[in-house]
Amino acid sequence: MATDADIITGQVDLPRMRRQRYSRLQAEMGRRDVPALLVFGSGAVQYAAGPSVISADSGRASHLRTAALVLAGDDQPHLFTPYPEGAPPELVPDHVHPPLYTESDQGVADLADILSGLSPGGLDRLAVDDLSGPMYRLAPRVLEGTELVDASRLLGPARLIKTSDELGCIRHAQRINEVAMHEVQAALVPGIRQTELTGMFLRRAFELGATGNGIDPIWQVMAPTRKGGPYTTHGDVAFPLITTDRVLADGDVIWVDTGVHYHGYASDFGRTWIVGHEPRATARQSDQYRRWRDVVTATLAEVRPGSTGSDLTAAARGVVGGQTPWLPHFYLIHGLGTESAEAPMIGTDMGPEHDAALVLQPGMVLVLEPVIWDDGYAGYRSEDIVAVTEDGWVGLSDYPYDPYDG
Amino acid sequence: MSPPTTNGRVAPAPENGNQIDFERLRAERHRTCVAVMDDLDLDALVVGREATIQYVSGARRFWTEGAKPFNPGCVMIAGSGLVYLMSTWADGVPPEIGHDQLYGMTWNGATLAAELAAIPGLSESRRIGVDAMTPGAARLLHAVAPKADIEDASAVLTDRRRIKTPDEQACIRVAAAAADSALAHALAGLRPGVRGRELTGRVAERMAGLGVTTPDLEAVFSSASPGGQAPVDELPAGALVSCHVGAIYAGYEGEVVRTWLNPGAKGLAAVPTPGQRRLAGRWSALFDRLMEACRPGGSGTDLLAAYETAGEPLPSGPVAHGVGLGMEPPLIGDGFPDDAGATTGFAPGMVLFVSGQVAEPEVGTIVAGETILITEGGHELLTGHGHGPLRSGDG
Predict the structure, then answer these.
(1) What is the value of pTM for the model shown?
(2) Which residues does chain A have within 8 Å of residue B331's beta carbon, measured at their own beta carbons?
């Protein structure tokens, strides 16, 4: 299990990481009596097989597909990939295959042949995360007798607890993201465009060794009031809004959110900045930050093995007079791994029962993203990342809160 | 507070400057969706692939990398012709989708079911078309619309989208220009000792400077010289470097591939060896044959035949693919099933990415490709970055 020393040195043993993840996946398959798992989602494929990939737009990724097939009891996953040079070196050659093409009938028939070749006895159940149109249409015929179940039921529990190597990857991705941001924040002067910030950030992140960019970087200018922002279905603040070539002005409050990848693991950088040559927070803005800090401190005080999600939401609400200090369409806390937001999620619209059933364990990663909003004066939102340890937590993010804590 | 851009809400920055009529673009796509629903006698269309959601809704959506599982993110009802979109806010949503046609994002399956059930006409549907599915989403849709048969509409959607309207072509031209420009900016930084990831960074920087912050793929720079997978920064002057750059503008793709001669230490162009010249000549002959096939009535089969008549072996992976809202069918090349589109006839308005690849063990590989538009008279190249010292005809 993760120790502080592992995280601080950031040492990553990629073959060990892949081996340990695979064991967790096999254990879940055994526990749920699922003989085979076939995944296409980029994050799921990373978790199951760990290939080096060229990150791509969803259209490209859905046609030139990288997929992973895990058979219960098998020593290694099967990888289907257009980039065989990216296959993990320890993967035996007969487990590395050409890509599956699932957008045509013949491609689906070929997939069915591959499945029956690899499991000659047939499969009574197959866990999948996505069915192309032809897969959905043809499955009753070409996979007759095979029950299709959702892969998320296996992947969610397996991914909930991170190994020390996974924590090292997240820490490293976050470090790349943060180092790049020091340069971007220094350039945050009136007259710069949102898209220019994106260009600076991405260039620096790639130079620093990011293996991909996960999301279109966000530099959202916050209107002072909810009504001043776009219409929302819940009447609350809209976030995140897409980046444009908007020119930023002195005093703009911007909510920043970015995520880059390192060996498949996502960073998550969230800060509130003020545009200016020497920006200073107003007294009210400083007070927003102080309340945000109080929420984080109170929540972290409850972070230890055995605490429930409800303990954390209660602590967060307790320091702001019972209000809910996070966005209603998101959460107080989300996890982070091969997806930029994954389990555990705490404070979502899945409700208090879901939070009460979530019991913290060592190795869970928690991204805290409370929001303090004073309508008329905008608000403060930042994200801090911790990993749950045997006796509390250890931080995985480390970036200042300028200009709010100065 | 800084004023929001007026042109940024439903498309990225260069929208107005490129005179693309996005309102007309969306209207034409909507008519296509109506035709798809007529073709399949659908009461409702429920789509979850990112490209299909963009096609049906016209919304500019938050970009995230990679393949995502199906999620019922957009619904179109045949009777009313109305489109409903999973979006908690109206930002990026075109005006024809009213506030009452938005349903908020949720983590709760019961909430999602209730949101879908509240869409007028969906729960009474007899036939629902989908572009993809998951086991859980199928259960959910059956619960929301108990009388409905759920049909695969993906092939008809693909087919109906194949011919690009002039406005779609204009979006692809912008993306192609951004890819060309970003490649040029990256190559200006290429010299011995420069790491591939620095070049990838230069691509992202230039694209964002043009207002395009979404890539088709993270730009790839790799050795095309003999001797395997040496990192780009270890390649000497005169080595072959392959470059693959793609951009996404307003959802549409533009893509360019080049093989470049690594310059000298001060960026001075290297002089190709006789072997490299010979290889460049072979590439040029091959690409001429490929382009001959790019005309109305040609097909992927003709592209594959062009390799054969040029005497060049087929590379692994696609030699051509459809271009639209990202990569689209047809996929043409070694290893793709016969029904992936190789036999689809080319017609004016189709956009393809076509690449030629030639190799010689002692010299290396030259691969280069262009985004092209099929026209009445043949084709038009939408990308046009030069080939540098490897251009053919120099001896």
Answers:
(1) 0.96
(2) 63-64, 101, 103
